[in-house]
């Protein structure tokens, strides 16, 4: 993938995540509920933003890592088919980044 395209896709994903977070924060349903004290409301708001960013950034970086590692793994597999098991481990490790981000966001949401 061209680095310029990746940068554009990354900025579009960040803009979409920011817009979705703003819609979640400023939704009329949250204003109709009982208003918590200002400090508690800010903590909840920033906690939701942090959980969303943890999931979004880890998923984007895991996708980028799997693309790079997967391409190299396929190239190595074409030359030496007996490396399949070892190469599968590398792709799995790259995918683990997304799982770690999801776990962090679940921990953040549990603290709210």
Automatic annotation (TrEMBL):
Give the top-rank taxon of the lineage listed in the UniProt record for this protein: Bacteria
Topology relative to the membrane? Multi-pass membrane protein
Protein name, per record? H+transporting two-sector ATPase C subunit
**Regions crossing the membrane:** 43-66, 87-109
Q: Where in the cell is it found?
A: Membrane
Is the keyword Protein biosynthesis in the record?
Answer: no
Supply the InterPro entries for this chain.
Answer: ATPase_proteolipid_c-like_dom (IPR002379), ATPase_proteolipid_csu (IPR000245), F/V-ATP_Csub_sf (IPR035921)
Domain annotation V-ATPase proteolipid subunit C-like: ranges: 50-108
Q: Name one GO cellular component term.
A: proton-transporting V-type ATPase, V0 domain
Q: Which Pfam family, giving just one, matches this sequence?
A: ATP-synt_C
One GO molecular function term of this record is: proton-transporting ATPase activity, rotational mechanism
Signal peptide location in the record?
Answer: 1-33
Q: Which UniProt keywords apply?
A: Ion transport, Membrane, Signal, Transmembrane, Transmembrane helix, Transport
Q: Which family does it belong to?
A: Belongs to the V-ATPase proteolipid subunit family.
Is Transport given among the entry's keywords? yes
Name the predominant localization: membrane
């Amino acid at each position: 993938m061209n680095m310029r395209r990746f940068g554009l896709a990354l900025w579009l994903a960040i803009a979409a995540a920011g817009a979705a977070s703003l819609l979640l924060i400023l939704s009329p349903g949250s204003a109709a509920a009982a208003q918590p004290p200002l400090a508690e409301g800010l903590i909840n708001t920033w906690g939701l933003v942090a959980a969303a960013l943890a999931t979004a950034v880890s998923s984007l970086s895991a996708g980028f890592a799997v693309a790079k590692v997967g391409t190299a793994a396929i190239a190595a597999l074409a030359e030496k088919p007996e490396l399949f098991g070892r190469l599968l481990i590398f792709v799995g490790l790259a995918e683990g980044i997304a799982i770690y981000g999801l776990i962090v966001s679940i921990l953040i949401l549990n603290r709210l």
